[in-house]
Design brief:
This is Transporter. It is a multi-pass membrane protein. Residues 1-13 have a biased composition (Basic residues). There is one protein chain. By secondary structure, the protein is an all-alpha fold. It has helices at residues 2-9, 38-60, 72-85, 93-97, 99-123, 128-139, 146-152, 157-169, 171-183, 191-215, 217-223, 227-245, 247-278, 283-294, 298-308, 315-342.
Length: 343
């Protein structure tokens, strides 16, 4: 019975990269990963390809997605609802058990990534739209794909789940003021309206999914296997819409945006890992910190950028959606190899 409760703790949705909606693999009582979960590995491999294909489609036939921009928040709501369906109240127990460690992960996430976004925007002398987009990605909550990647890296899955959960819950209070502070020099930021949008597209759908899971758990369990593909397809559509909306500008800006995203994600992973080591959390927790800091909810960033700035400002989030999953899988494989060698 205890093992089932611990396993439930780590069943999460991956709302964007790594097939969102895929439950994180079960772990043992000591927090260590159970035998490799094929679905998780398949998610890490397949989802970037799906999103890349969707982006190519948006670039090649942008007219097919004309007028779809206003639907992006609703599409994100579908993804977040799927996230809620895979959650239970037990997911929040990790916060109570290790509050200071979760708080450290939360602070590291909301300090390192927004700060890096601002620094990179200045260092690369990005246009106002792209600079605001990069900063907004940095101000977004943790991408829940980090849970699966942490598992594959032999990291602390319980810590990963807790930080991802709390960063999502506090996003309405943190993301808008951070965006206003750091991106306000580039574009006007309506922080109040952004709070409302995050509540509507993130917290309400997640809460609704959680309620449905609590009331109709038996029925939801039957469709959990389909949630990853529903979420993945929805995120792919979001990326296609974002890319189509800025197709004309991509040819000139794509290389610069890719450089910004690679720097943002890579430095985030490195500094997140360094924060864990500096706090002497141990190797597994430091691996979790790397992914909780370096991987973002770029689906939310794309939605907010489209609604509050422009399709061009959403381009960094679309590129981040693909890249950080690829880099996360590679870094996880390397960390897992190192852990096996040292173990």
């Amino acid at each position: 019975m205890r093992r089932r409760r611990v396993a439930t703790l780590h069943r999460r949705v991956h709302t964007e990269q790594t097939t969102p909606g895929t439950a994180a693999p079960d772990v043992a009582d000591d927090g260590s990963p159970a035998p490799a979960d094929r679905a998780a590995r398949r998610a890490v491999t397949v989802f970037p390809v799906l999103v890349l294909g969707a982006g190519a489609l948006g670039l090649l036939v942008p007219g097919a997605f004309e007028g779809w921009g206003p639907n992006v928040p609703y599409l994100l709501g579908v993804v977040m609802f799927c996230m809620g369906l895979t959650m239970t109240p037990v997911d929040f127990q990790g916060v109570v058990k290790r509050p200071w460690v979760v708080a450290l992960g939360l602070v590291a996430h909301y300090v390192i990534m927004p700060g890096l976004g601002w620094l990179i925007a200045h260092a690369l002398d990005l246009s106002p739209q792209l600079a605001a987009g990069v900063i907004l990605v940095g101000c977004a909550p943790s991408g829940t794909a980090s849970n699966v990647v942490t598992y594959l890296a032999r990291g602390d899955v319980a810590l990963s789940v807790s930080v991802a959960t709390v960063s999502t819950v506090v996003a309405p209070l943190v993301t808008p003021p951070l965006t206003l502070l750091l991106a306000g020099e580039y574009l006007p930021v309506d922080a109040g309206s952004m709070v409302t949008d995050i509540l509507k597209t993130v917290l309400l759908p997640v809460a609704a999914g959680l309620v449905v899971r609590l009331c109709f758990g038996g029925y939801v369990d039957r469709v959990l296997g389909a949630l990853p593909w529903l979420s993945a397809a929805t995120v792919a559509v979001i990326v296609a819409v974002v890319v189509a909306g800025s197709a004309d500008a991509i040819k000139s800006a794509a290389a610069l945006v890719l450089v910004a995203v690679v720097l943002h994600n890579g430095l985030g992973l490195a500094l997140g890992y360094g924060a864990g080591k500096l706090a002497r959390l141990g190797a597994p927790a430091s691996r979790a910190m790397a992914f909780e800091v370096g991987m973002q909810n770029s689906g939310l960033a794309a939605s907010l950028a489209t609604a509050h700035f422009s399709p061009l400002a959403a381009l960094p989030a679309a590129v981040f959606s693909v890249w950080h999953n690829v880099s996360g899988a590679l870094v996880a494989a390397w960390m897992s190899y190192r852990a096996r060698r040292s173990g």
